[in-house]
Amino acid sequence: MNSSTQHVSVAGPAGTLEAALDLPAGEPLGTAVLCHPHPLFGGTMDNKVVQTLARAFVQLGWRAVRFNFRGVGSSSGQWDEGRGEVDDALAVVDALSAEGKPLVLGGFSFGGYVASQVARRLPAGRKAERLVLIAPAVKNFGVADVPADTLVVHGENDDVVPLSAALDWARPQALPLIVVPGAGHFFHGQLPLLRQIIVGAWRRPDSPS
Q1: What are the structural domains, with CATH classification, of the chain?
Q2: What are the pLDDT tens digits along the chain (209 aa)?
Q3: Can you tell me the distance from the alpha carbon of 26 to that of 193, in angstroms, rounded to the nearest whole number?
Q4: What gap in Å lies between CA 106 and CA 35, rounded to an integer?
Q5: How far apart are CA 80 and CA 99, in angstroms?
Q6: What is the DSSP annotation of the chain?
Q7: Whether the predicted model's global pTM rises above the 0.70 cut
Q8: Contact, 67 vs 10, CB < 8 A?
Q9: What does the alpha-carbon distance between residue 86 and residue 115 come to, in Å, rounded to a whole number?
């Protein structure tokens, strides 16, 4: 993504997983593990929405970890209908997030499903501090219920995961969504706005500006 990107390999349950670490200028506040969209429809860790997530977290002072699910890019294995992909993400969290340091989970589309399931399965001592889900794939996958402070951003004109489906998922949880007017699933032409939304929503009142 930039000159501060490091490419590494992680031992996953189906073989080696390809990963990239995007680093902030100073000591990272923690690690954000970011999950890419559906592998069978061109999803990779270099997806523009995932890179936008990474840039946002680097700007916020976090180390951003992107990785390719099994069978994507240089990662070993093959598509496992979402089950093994959750295991892949858990392996990346275990390998690349420091115990005792804050962890954030994020994902776009199918990656949002994976992030929600990983958050549910992490042991008590390794729980994520917060989640960010961009157009989570609530229509085709069992996106788990998430904590009330989860940041969810959805496009008004999403033709892959309709906004109505996202609202149906969020409503029983009383979970607010940020809706980007006119945006489609991939936020074409609105990625700078998406980055701005993430950075602005992530900062708490006591956070440094």
Answers
A1: 5-202 (3.40.50.1820)
A2: 555 799 999 999 999 999 999 999 999 999 999 999 999 999 999 999 999 999 999 999 999 999 999 999 999 999 999 999 999 999 999 999 987 899 999 999 999 999 999 999 999 888 999 999 999 999 999 999 999 999 999 999 999 999 999 999 999 999 999 999 999 999 999 999 999 999 999 875 445 44
A3: 25
A4: 6
A5: 28
A6: --TTEEEEEEEETTEEEEEEEE--SSS-S-EEEEE-S-GGGT--TT-HHHHHHHHHHHHTTPEEEEEPPTTSTT--S---TTHHHHHHHHHHHHHHS-TTS-EEEEEETHHHHHHHHHHHHS-GGG--SEEEEES--TTTS-PPP--TT-EEEEETT-SSS-HHHHHHHHGGGT---EEETT--TT-TT-HHHHHHHHHHHH--TTS--
A7: yes
A8: yes
A9: 8
Encoding tokens for residue 200? Answer: 């602005």
Q: Could you identify the residue written with the tokens 């609530």?
A: 138
